[in-house]
Amino acid sequence: MFNDVRAVIFDIDGTLMDSINRIVECIRISCSEVGANVPSGEQSRAVIGLSLGQAIACILPGRDEKDVLKAIEVYKKTYLKLEQDNPTGLFADAYDVLLELKKRGYKIGIATGKSRMGYNRVMSYVEIAPLVDVSSTGDEVRSKPDQQMLNRLSDELRIPPKGCLMVGDSSLDISMGVNAHTRTAGVLTGVHDRNVLMNAGADVVVNSLTELLDYLPGVEDNK
Hints:
With 223 residues, this protein is α/β, with parallel strands linked by helices. Helices cover 45% and strands 12% of the residues. α8 runs parallel beside α9. The protein is built from 10 helices and 6 strands, in the order βαααααβαβαβαβαβα. It has a 6-stranded parallel β-sheet with strand order 3-2-1-4-5-6.
């Protein structure tokens, strides 16, 4: 199915990293700190993948800008403290899958709603950084599902969008890929179920990253 793909671009949260529950917890704490109604887990999960500012604004519609800004700061401090105490880990197969894709000749990209600072912090304590060729973060471009993030990565790799595969756990990831005209694969390790991912336009939905390898046989010419 993906014989023409030369680059595989991954979301982080819920795709490479088992961080969804922690993000939900931090969103709930940040809302509580500004006296807002604490969102349900489903409401919190729905905004994961957006840049932090957009995510909090969506969770706090109609609230004063000061409350939104305060909630953002509470989120950042809370997330950083929790990560310092107990860093979030990659999914068990993430490293091996990325390593195998590199061996098969694929370029590896990261497209994340995290800030560049947050991305760099994560890369400092997980082992996949040497496997990543390019990355783009939520504070550098327009937020998902806008295609700007994937367009930038495609340009940096010098691989046209049709030669890139976007892999993510949420409809935001899949919609971004559709908007950028890349191929798309949903993975059932994070926010959304199979029906939501397929309805967003996923070419395929897999249960795990390991299963994704079945669709990516290798690149003969990666120049």
